[in-house]
Design brief:
Chain lengths: ~210, ~210
DNA sequence: GCTCGAAAATGAACAATGTTCAAGAAGAAT
DNA sequence: ATTCTTCTTGAACATTGTTCATTTTCGAGC
């Protein structure tokens, strides 16, 4: 028994529809926000019944969580593409890339971070783990800049720094009042990273 | 016509019930999360009909937003109580107090930051403004530590720093996996603030 | 090609929950 | 006491997540 993509026509069709449902759900979340995502809308747009959505994903949270999983995967891919020649540039690049990605897919990221499960079922561990792994991408450049530091502490520092950047960005993009221009936020982030690195004893080179 | 708390018995009763509804809603959000808040539960617990809740708050979002408004007010009060003798201690105190408050009222804070309006009606400006005002509480101590800096830049720095602290805390308290102990987070935050201040050219004194 | 059985799809019915509103109750004004 | 205003009620409605008995689909074995 092959657990990846079976080859029978039936399975291919099933798989195509699964992808289609996800694409539609992602589109709705991205354009109108998680709160506007409705089973019936998804089913109708996918040309199938609501039952089929449930058949494929168990419950509606299942659809959302799958979209969220793919969001963090896409984010990780984007972050992994940041050049690693110079660790200083890499750190700035990771922050700037996160900002870009967040600005482009604000509603998807909000779905990732803000979705709460029904009752008080726990958010799936694997997604939280993927987020933490993405945030750990600052670890290697930090290690190169601070080769004598305790590795465990650097791992923590990596998450802390990325979480800080996340806070600045997610709140910075929140304000529809003055509509903080992304360019402004970009400067803010760069400055913040420089200050943090300076505090760690690393001289900025920009 | 007096626009504050009228004195007639009718108005007093109305006002009492308003408070009661808010207290109940807050209790449910705090203990079981925003997603578990239901109009009927609130109405039943308050001993009134669902219609009365709507009569008082317009719609259900109105209840949530009022609770959120009171949450940020309580937060501001707590933060304003941080001693201001020494600006360095004050900054650490603000961060530590935010952590305490967040740990104590995690679900209320999540409701404040994560609630999205129906359709895509904008989140009320006054609440966002109150949050920003709370985050501006780092401005005075920063001004004392950096008296020669540009005031506008310091205002921005205040929001940036507080947003960063928010990110570290809100993500730090998220992980039900390893259950980051608050004491650990406390150290993380202190270290972070020290590093940031060092980067700004301010020597830590702890 | 036909038959049969397993798997999937369907969508009507159900359940949970936000929202409205006509009718009635309660209180204020005279 | 009567009238008028305002508030309250809760049944009815609207929306949306969920279930499941029935039907359809499709591949395997003959």
């Amino acid at each position: 028994m092959n657990n990846v993509q079976e080859e029978s026509p039936r399975d291919r069709k099933k798989f195509r529809r699964r992808l289609q449902i996800l694409e539609i759900a992602r589109g709705i979340i991205a354009s109108k926000g998680l709160r506007s995502l409705k089973v019936r809308d998804v089913a109708e747009a996918a040309g199938c019944s609501v039952g089929s959505v449930y058949n494929e994903f168990g419950d509606f949270d299942g659809v959302i969580l799958t979209v969220n999983r793919e969001t963090v995967q896409a984010l990780t891919t984007r972050l992994a593409g940041v050049p690693a020649e110079d660790p200083l540039h890499q750190l700035h690049g990771l922050a700037a890339t996160y900002l870009e990605f967040f600005a482009e897919h604000a509603n998807l990221l909000r779905s990732l971070f803000e979705h709460r499960m029904e009752d008080d079922r726990p958010y799936p561990d694997d997604i939280l783990q993927m987020v933490m792994d993405a945030f750990a991408l600052m670890h290697p450049p930090l290690l190169r800049l601070l080769p004598d530091a305790d590795d465990v502490k650097l791992a923590l520092l990596s998450r802390t720094l990325f979480s800080a950047v996340h806070g600045i960005i997610s709140l910075g993009l929140e304000e529809r009042m003055v509509a903080v221009p992304p360019q402004m936020l970009r400067q803010q982030i760069d400055q913040f990273v420089d200050t943090q690195l300076a505090g760690l004893g690393i001289l900025p080179v920009r």
